[in-house]
Amino acid sequence: MESSMDRLKCVRRSKEEKKLLRRQIKISHTLLKHEGINTVSHPTKHLVVSNGGLGNGVSRESLLEVLKEGGTVESLLTPPAKPYAFVTYSSIEACQNAYTFLNGRALQCQEEQSVTIYFSYVEKVDSDRSVPCALPPGLLVLEDVVSPEEELQLLHAVDWTPHTDDVTVDSDRSVPCALPPGLLVLEDVVSPEEELQLLHAVDWTPHTDDVTVQKALKHRRVKHYGYEFRYDNNNVDKDKPLPDGLPAECDALLQRCLADGHISVLPDQLTVNQYQSGQGIPPHVDTHSAFEDTILSLSLSAKTVMDFKHPDGRSVAVVLPERSLLVMKGESRYLWTHGITPRKFDVVPVLEAGGSGVMTSDLSNLTLSRRGTRISLTFRKIRHTPCSCAYPSACDSQRLPPPPTVPVAEGDACRLESQYVHQVYEEISSHFSSTRHSPWPQVRDFLLSLPPGSVLADIGCGNGKYLGINPEVMSVGCDRSANLVQICIERGHEGFVSDALSVPLRSGSCDACISIAVIHHFSTQERRQAAVRELIRLLKVGGRALIYVWAMEQEYNNQKSKYLKERTTGTSMENGKELKTEENKTNQPEKHDRKMSSDIKCTEDGFGNVTQPRIHVHTNRTAFLSQDLLVPWHLKGNADKNKGATSSSTDVPVDKTSQSPVFHRYYHVFQQGELEEMCFSVAGVKVLRRYHDQGNWCVELEKTHYTSSKDDIAQEKV
After folding, report:
1. Model-level pTM?
2. Structural contact between residues 663 and 632, judged by C-beta atoms closer than 8 angstroms
3. Mean pLDDT, to the nearest integer, of 410-437?
4. Cα separation of 404 and 587, whole Å?
5. Which of 204, 295, 461, 683 has the most other CB atoms within 10 Å of its CB?
6. How many alpha carbons lie under 13 Å from residue 464 in its C-beta half-sphere?
7. Residues 6+ apart with CB under 8 A from 155
8. What DSSP character marks residue 499?
9. Maximum alpha-carbon separation in the chain
10. pLDDT of 461-515, one tens digit each?
């Protein structure tokens, strides 16, 4: 008897048949490799239809119409976003008929293009394979857990008799089942005539003297009434209402919502969005401090699918039909994000293609819906008091402001340093001074090497711990903190309040200058470089300066710095829990990001606006993750000892474990070579030595010659 291979060789095929066979073989390999779908060569009742899935833009209706030409279709499964579907025929003969006559058929898809569908036999339609995602971790579905008799008992136990104190839901207009708590979708809330009136009420024509505000965003067109919503800060100018308020055409709808109890007060802000097919809006929660609880969103002209997501990862896709009203209250308004994925087609349930509801996982009930141009009217009530909702983790009124951004302009740098350096040291001065008593050995050696009678200036002297090291030199110190300078004076040292960028001493008046742990508090490269120039200005020719700055490399030559070692000993005065922010939740001490701060890319927010990178809050006693950071200081002891301390600096968080305030100091930690490179750029100076000392980069400089500058001339007049 001839083998099947011999018989195959005897069959004479046309070029088209050979091409189809090659294509089927290739598709079978692809299905097995990427989807784990095994095809078979013998006829069965089941076929996998390649290129015939929702992911190809093929709707369920158009595919089913073609499949019926082969015979009676028992079931059709269309997994969302997949390029294939599964069909089961009533008999093997019908399935063979479809396989023979429909293979290679060109089919029109939603993109007004055609695709060629190919069929392969499968032994059975495995529902586990057809479902594109597994069950969530920890979720089980147990079958037949009750007997038919128990089922009847449970059904009879439910009393469906309405009571006066029951909370009823209009099943014809809302679909609350499985929706996020507090969310309602009300269908047909306006008639087609009212829809036209509302659409005509929105004037998209641009006018130079337009009384409402129009903006063209990256993802859609938008217009505001009542108050302008500002996308740069996701809030509203509450003191600047727009003229004329909301369009009068909205009154009838809002009065019905008020009468039906969906809102308790009339909205005074309206945002109109126009979404073209393929446009969307990023996931977001409407700002708590800007708007009151209930938010209404009316869909006009076209339907869409809106995605809701809980912070724990749960997600719900909700179909919003044309002329439907979305009502968001409570948890759905305050905690769940909502957004619209930019795409031209939505996967929607077949039986509810014209209605609302939650997306189903029933693969036999899904099809594609082409998006049209949709107009949404979002009604909100402006909030005039801080939000006190039950969701503080998502509430901007109840959480601390985010860390600042990396400054670019001089004014931004000054404000950052004032808030996160100057004011902080005034607040913590007493506690800070109590932790700064032992001089660093190599700084001590530098000071003792100065000849008797030398003039020494300590720029950024703090509590003056270095001013008395060498009694044979004339020492004077200055600091930006008045409280620290006062401590310095009380210890018998000479000191005055001054900014390190403008010291009121004559040029060339000092034999030596030191700047210990100061320059890393300046927030731009220009200001750090200016601090070095000011040190050199004070020196005589031949005079020396010693500079210490915090190093990013806290582990150097396989040795950890004291800063890292103290994390395990528990001796740190600054140990404890840091301010928890979104920016540092994902920080892992083991991952050391060595990118220069200048290399950090500016980011885009959800609305296409360019923003500067945030400064991370550092976790104490761990490796640095970035060069620009905020380092927590946990205030210990009696805060009243900090003379002149005020509460005007920032909203200070409290470490709940010890009830002590937590302040944050700005630092720019230096990478290896960065400090000496900055010194090389200063004229009239040479680097005598550079070294790493207990987590600090250090340089000793010598002034080689005098250089005249505008700063020198200005200081000479002091």
Report:
1. 0.47
2. yes
3. 95
4. 17
5. 461
6. 22
7. none
8. B
9. 116
10. 999 999 999 999 999 999 999 999 999 999 999 999 999 999 999 999 999 999 9
